[in-house]
């Protein structure tokens, strides 16, 4: 069973790579078979954009490799991650994506959906923080009013007590 990994180092500048790994039957570990730097990727071929199939080809600078994902959905997810990674980390010579379903590069991608969800969550959290800040501000104002009122009461009580003791 072969699988693939798209990874990015935390070094500066970041280095992205594509690794093909194999998992042997009955094992939970993976063995690295081949690895290419993202800069070496020239073409991603989805083979047939009109049907969901797990097969695809990757053309590198000095190599051609045929791949089969576990499912068509896994292939789609890999393409979306790969496309996003290329857009983010490759400044020039981005690979060509051919024979890929439009949803892979379009607005319906998992990454866009995730980004939209995160943006929505951040907006909701920001709104909640603003509302809480307003409530805290009002509570602080009310506390200040109560403090002033208590001080006035204490002063008045002290004066009344003074007059009663005479």
From TrEMBL:
The keyword Coiled coil applies. It comes from the Eukaryota. The keyword Coiled coil applies. Residues 129-156 form a coiled coil. Pfam families: Sec3-PIP2_bind, Synaptobrevin. GO terms for biological process: exocytosis; Golgi to plasma membrane transport. PANTHER family: EXOCYST COMPLEX COMPONENT 1 ISOFORM X1, SEC3/SYNTAXIN-RELATED. This is STXB6 protein. It comes from Indicator maculatus (spotted honeyguide). The gene is Stxbp6.
């Amino acid at each position: 069973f072969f699988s693939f990994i798209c990874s990015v180092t935390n070094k500066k500048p970041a280095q992205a790579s594509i690794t093909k790994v194999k998992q042997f039957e009955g094992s939970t570990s993976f063995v690295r078979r081949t690895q290419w730097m993202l800069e070496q990727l020239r073409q991603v071929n989805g083979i047939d954009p009109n049907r969901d199939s797990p097969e695809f080809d990757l053309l590198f600078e000095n190599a051609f490799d045929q791949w089969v994902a576990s499912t068509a959905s896994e292939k789609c997810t890999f393409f979306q991650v790969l496309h996003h990674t290329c857009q983010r980390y490759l400044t020039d010579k981005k690979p060509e994506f051919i024979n890929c379903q439009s949803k892979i590069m379009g607005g319906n991608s998992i990454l866009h959906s995730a980004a939209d969800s995160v943006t929505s969550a951040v907006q909701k959290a920001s709104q909640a923080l603003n509302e809480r800040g307003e409530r805290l501000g009002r509570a602080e104002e009310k506390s200040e009013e109560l403090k002033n009122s208590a001080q006035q009461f204490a002063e008045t009580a002290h004066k009344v007590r003074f007059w009663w003791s005479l």
